[in-house]
Amino acid sequence: MAEVQHASLHYTGHVQGVGFRYATLQIAKEFEVSGYVRNLPDGRVELELEGTRAEVDAFAKAVEERMHGYIRKVEHTGTRRAPQFSGFAIR
Q1: 53 is catalytic
Q2: Catalytic residue (choose from 38, 39, 44, 80)
Q3: If you count Cβ atoms within 10 Å of the first and of the last residue's Cβ in the chain, which end, N or C, has fewer?
Q4: Which of 51, 50, 48, 56 is nearest to 11 (CA)?
């Protein structure tokens, strides 16, 4: 199977308890992406995402625009790899 763009994003700030994961799930419905979003024990939110580079980039930008008031810092890494996710979920 063809490779897809994979992105791993970690959001720092006031990102838990503000509907961040739910908003991310709603945004995912607007894009051709798969993966998941979850809270981490250290207070950050992790977003694992895959799709075409254009979809991944547009999705990540949409999340940052919608939740900008809560995000202080974003750590982003990306690679190309075989698809590993089906659908998008909150974990």
Answers
A1: no
A2: 39
A3: N
A4: 48
